[in-house]
Amino acid sequence: MKNNLKNQRLKTFYLMIIFITFIFCANIVSAGQMPSIKQGETALVRQTCGSCSYVNISIYYPNSTKAITNDAMTNVGGGYWEYSFLSTNELGKYDYPTCGDIDGVHTCSSSDELPYFEVKNSNYFLFYTLLGLAMLFFIATLFVNEEFFVYISGILFLISGIYLMINGIDLVNDWYSRGISYVLIGIGLLFSIGAYIFNSYNKWKDEEFD
Asked: Which of 54-58, 119-123, 172-176, 193-197 has the lowest mean pLDDT?
């Protein structure tokens, strides 16, 4: 009976670890593009071309209709070009192909891999759901003498911390959100490692007195 319960707990623990890895990898993959912005905010689109004398940009709404066509981007120095786009009321992915005279040759973005930015809603729901579950399992440990609940609570704190570190609060990732994420990750590690040490100590004590 104890072995079956232990195996079930281990399976749950491994599934949690896989879930953490999935969230982390999914966000790393999405980080290759311009960061997401909130609905209605200005999108500051950037492009690099050190040898260009001009760079023009076209932007497509998520429904593939054109928002702008061949507008000039601003040269901000150092080979960097910028364009401020205001019409971000629609949620979704905005493709923005660019054209410039690279080394004197008019060249446009490849149609196979167009650069884009995404407009998303605030990401409060998932973060607070994870944090709420973490606290719920922690509160449960105050009433039930079960270290496995501390494992789950610690893992959920870890997930919420990693999610916050990557995505920020309300799509804003700054020193404030990073500080909170470090605290949550620290709590998660403390709970997880503490529960492991406590469980190992109890196991050693039981074997010692058997």
From this structure: 172-176
The segment with the largest mean pLDDT, out of 33-47, 91-105, 128-142, 178-192, is: 91-105
- The CA distance from 72 to 77, in Å, is 15
C-alpha pair distances (Å), 76 with each of 49, 69, 115, 159: 11, 21, 20, 39
pLDDT at 141: 75
Gap between the Cα atoms of 59 and 47, Å rounded: 13
d(CA 195, CA 42): 46
Contact 119, 67 (CB under 8 A): no
Q: Which residue(s) pair with 98 in the sheet?
A: 57
Give all domains of the chain, ordered by start, each with its CATH number: 2-32+122-209 (no CATH), 40-120 (2.60.40.10)
